[in-house]
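LAB NOTEBOOK - FOLDING QUEUE
OPERATOR: T.R.
BATCH SIZE: 2
PURPOSE: Compare the predicted C-alpha cell outputs for two unrelated chains run back to back under identical settings.
PRIORITY: normal
REVIEWER: second-year student, initials M.K.

ITEM 1
FIELD SEQUENCE / FIELD STRUCTURE:
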Amino acid sequence: MLGRFCVLGTSAAAQAERYVPTIWVDPDGCEHWVMDDGAEGYMSPHLTPEGLPVCRQGPTCGTLNTDQFFGTDQHRIDARGRARLLNFFRSSEATVFSIAGHTDARASDAYNLRLSQRRANAVAAIVREAGKQVSQSVGYGERKPRATNNTAEGMSQNRRVEIICVR
C-alpha cells in the first residue's frame, strides 16, 4: 500500500523506462495511476476481502460489432462507418472515451493483439476528429471473448470495439 492506494508494482525493466504520470480508466471501470518511476496502482481505496480493488462500473456507452466497420483482417474504417462513428461521438455528452478492441480467435494471439490495437486506434482517431479526448486505446485481441469462438455467431460477437464513456 502506498498511502491509500494499492500498488501494483514495478519491474527492473519498467524502472529503466521513462513514464509520464497519468490516471487512466480500464475497460472494467477501474481507475489506475502511474507515477513517473513506473509505479502503478488503483485509485480505489476500497478493497474486496481478497485484496482486489473495488472499481466503479464505467458506463460502456457502445459496443460495436467490428464487422460493421472493418473488412475481414482489416483495420481501416469504411466511409459509412466513419460517418456513423463521427455522429455518435459528436452527439455524445461524454467528453473522454476509452476504446477497447477485440478479435475472434482465428489467428495467432500476437497477430490478434496487433489487429485489435490497430482497430482501437482507428476508432480513437475518429474520437479525436470529433473533438473529444481519448483516455486510452487498447487492443485485447482474443483474450476477452464475449461468446464461444467455436461458432460463427460467437466469433462475430467477439469481433468488437467497446467504447467506455468517461464524464
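ITEM 2
FIELD SEQUENCE / FIELD STRUCTURE:
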Amino acid sequence: MSDAQQKIFEMAVMQSWNAIVITDADVRGGCKVLVANPAFCSMTGYTLDEIRGHDLKMLQGPDTDPEVIAHLRECLKTGRHFDGSTVNYRKDGSPYIVRWNISPVRDEAGVITNYVSVQQDLTAFREAERKVQLLARALDVTSVPVVLTDTCFRIIFANTAFASVTGYPVDELVGKTPAMLRSGQHGKAFYDALREALASGQDFSATFVNKRRDGSLYHVEQNISPLYDDNGKVSHYVSVSKDVSERVKREARLLHEASEDKLTALYNRRYGEKLLAEAHQRARALGTDLTLIVCDIDFFKQVNDHFGHLAGDQVITDVATILRGTVRTSDAVIRWGGEEFVVVLNDCDLGAGKDLAERLRAGVEAHRSDGVGTVTLSCGVASLKAQEPADALFARADAALYQSKSNGRNRVTAAGSF
C-alpha cells in the first residue's frame, strides 16, 4: 500500500460516521484494541488511550446477551464474519444498544492478523421503533375502527376493530382499497365530494353505509384526514370511524313507531300529513302528477253498534290490508282517522287514480270480515291542479268522497265529475 493510499485509509477510518475499532487477532487474549476512531470513542465515552490495549469485554454488562457474545467468540475462533446486536455500557455506566459486524483481516498468506469492527448505536432507532410499535399496538387494541391508506387509497394498516366491524381478516384488507366495502347506497356525488375534500387537504366526515364481508350492511360515522410528510405533502390518509348501526336501527324504529298507526300498521295521520306535503312539493318542483284518494268505510258506526268495537277494529284492519295490498309500493296508504283512509299516488293522473280507487272499492266489497260479513267503501279522487296548495287538493278529494256518500255510498267519485 502506498503512503497516499494509507493516508486515505486512515482518514476514512478516523472520519467515518460509523464507530470503527481495530483489534489484534489474539482471540485467547481477548483481542486487544489497537485503533478506535472518534465515533467509537464518542459512542462509548472512552478515550483511545483508555481503551487501547484492552479487550472490549469492558463494554459488557448485566443486560448484554450472553448468547450473542458466545456466537461472537465462536465466529472469532473460526475466522468467520460476525454480525449481531446487544446491550453494551458506556464509561458512565449508561446502557446503549449496539449493532456491530466484525470482519477478519488476513495477510498475504491468509493468516488472520486483525479484526475490524464497524458499530452503530441503535438506541435512538430502537426507541423510535419501540414507540411506533407501541402506537401500533395501542391503535390495534382500541375499540374504535382505524384504517391507514397510502395516497392511492390502498390499505396499509387496519386495526382489529376495523377488521371486526367489516368481517374481513386484516391480511385480506391490507393492499386493498376501502372501495371493497361500498354498499351501493351512496351515489356518485357522495364519492365526488369525498375525493374533492381530500384533494384539497380537508377532512371528510359523513355517515357511511358500508357492506361487510358477509354482504350485510352497517352504518359508521367516519372521519377521513390527510397526513403530511416533512415537506408538507400528503403521504397517507387515516380514517377513524364509529359503528352506529344500532343507533340508526333505533332511530329508524322510533321513526317507524312515531309514523305508524298502531292498529293497522299504516302511516298515521301526523306522518301522512308530512308525506302529503313532501309529495306536493316534489310534484310542483318536477311538474309531475299527484293524485289523492280519500276513502271511508260505509256505515261504520253501525258495525261498532251491532258487533262491538273489537269487531270494528277487525274491519278497519281488514280494509287496511286490502288497501296496502292493492296499491303500488311507491304509494302511501294513511289511516287518516277512525274509519277514514287517504292514499297518496305519486306520478299518477286522475284517470289512473280513479281506476285504482275502483279496485280498492271492489276489493273491500268482495271481502267478508269474520263475524261482520261484507262492508263497503266510498272513495273520492282528485288530482293536483297547477299552483294548487296541498290543502286545496285534499279538500277537493274529500268533497268528492262526500259526493259518493250522498249518491248512495259504495262508489268512486272523481273531483270535477259532479
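REVIEWER COMMENT (ITEM 2): The radius of gyration is 42 Å.
FOLLOW-UP: none requested
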